[in-house]
Design a protein that fits this description.
- The chain is α+β, with helices and mostly antiparallel strands.
- The chain has one domain: Jelly Rolls, CATH 2.60.120.
- Helices cover 27% and strands 19% of the residues.
- The protein is built from seven helices and 15 strands.
- Helix 1 links the parallel strand 2 and strand 3.
- Helix 1 crosses helix 4 and helix 2 packs across helix 4.
- The longest helix has 26 residues.
- It is globular and about 50 Å long.
- The structure holds 2-oxoglutaric acid and fe (ii) ion.
- The site of 2-oxoglutaric acid has 11 residues, from strand 6, strand 12 and strand 13.
Length: 341
């Protein structure tokens, strides 16, 4: 089996061209990448350049609004809404140097920015979410087949059949320009973490790099991580995918939910803003997650997310006690920490 591997990284690139005819080969490649590394990129995935550009335009329009307008839909404790500099990572004890907007399919009453502030925000966002969810379904069916499970396991597990219980989330991300700013070593655009969903699909723009992954992982549930970090090249034509903690558990740890982070630009690198967009396929609230070998107790999607949030809060307390001296930075953590994916 041969992979195309980005020069500067060891994250395999898997092409989805001729998907139906190449299905068996694609499943083999997805399983190999996800059991060894937990990350892969997708080429020829069917989401058009225009769709991706439109999504980034929407994101830029939204983040260009004044903070008091964005604050009309603040992060609401259910992984929906806007935050800025409010996500403190347990792994670093410092706030990510970013702002983000979380959007879901269900229970979004009052959480959509109004047409007075931004034109057609909801319709434009949902069009992109639908497209990414459809592609995710294709990939998740491959994982079900690769794991010897019923084809619909993760699709029925994540896609709302019309009852309004979806927990999947689109996250628009804006990492601010760091022109003329100095940061201590403990600051990151996004501190090291593993995602707690089933499957993440991440869109980047050419040249806006900084994403690093720490390939492979043996256990779910702690914030320890290895020390080998690989760069993932920022390419707008490829989707970066990673396995989240839910799929790691659902596969009895066969598929790895891998730690990753976004570093600040190094000396001599462009200091401009970075935009990325992540779609987190989450288990529906009442779906039971359990692997075929029953390695872990059954758990519902709702309980899984609740526990992930609790673990994050505990992690924050433990880490900030252990690390009292955080270097000063231009952007500092606000008093309230939030826990999102
Ligand atoms: O912006 C990126 O490249 C990664 C973001 C990420 O890992 C996350 O939001 O979970
Ligand atoms: Fe992530």
């Amino acid at each position: 089996m041969s992979f195309e591997t980005d020069d500067q990284s060891s994250v395999p690139c898997i092409s989805l061209h001729n998907f139906e005819e190449r299905r068996a080969e694609i499943i083999e490649q997805l399983m190999d990448a996800s059991t060894r590394i937990g990350f892969f990129t997708l080429a020829n995935h069917g989401i058009s350049v225009k769709q991706i550009q439109d999504a980034f335009e929407l994101s830029q329009e939204f983040f260009a609004l004044p903070d008091d307008v964005k604050a009309k839909t603040p992060l609401n404790g259910k992984n929906m809404g806007w935050e800025k500099g409010a996500q403190i990572r347990p792994s670093t004890g410092t706030a990510d140097q970013k702002e983000s907007m979380q959007l879901q399919f269900a229970r979004m009453e009052g959480m959509w920015p109004s047409d007075d502030d931004i034109t057609d925000f909801r319709a434009r966002a949902e069009a992109f979410m639908d497209a990414v969810q459809q592609l995710s379904v294709k990939v998740m069916e491959c994982f079900a087949e690769g794991l010897g499970l019923p084809l619909s396991t993760f699709t029925e597990g994540t896609v709302d059949p019309g009852v309004g219980d979806s927990q999947s989330t689109l996250r628009l991300l804006h990492y601010h320009s760091v022109e003329g700013k100095e940061f201590g070593d403990s600051f990151w655009r996004a501190g090291s973490h593993a995602d707690f969903d089933v499957l993440t699909m991440l869109f980047q723009r050419d040249g806006e790099g900084g994403l690093e992954v720490c390939p492979g992982r043996e256990v779910v549930g702690d914030f320890g991580h290895g020390n080998t970090w690989k760069n993932v090249e920022a390419r707008s034509d490829r989707i970066v995918c990673n396995i989240g903690d839910q799929l790691m558990r659902w596969s009895d740890d066969r598929l790895k939910s891998t730690f990753h982070r976004v570093r600040l630009p190094k000396q001599g690198e462009p200091k401009g803003p970075r935009y990325s967009i992540a779609f987190f396929n989450q288990a529906r609230s009442d779906i039971v997650i359990q692997g075929p070998g029953k390695k872990y107790a059954p758990i519902t999607g709702a309980e899984f997310i609740k526990q992930a949030l609790e673990r994050n809060k505990l992690g924050i307390a433990a880490r900030s006690l252990a690390q009292p001296q955080i270097k000063e930075a231009e952007v500092t953590a606000p008093s309230t920490a939030v826990t999102v994916n």
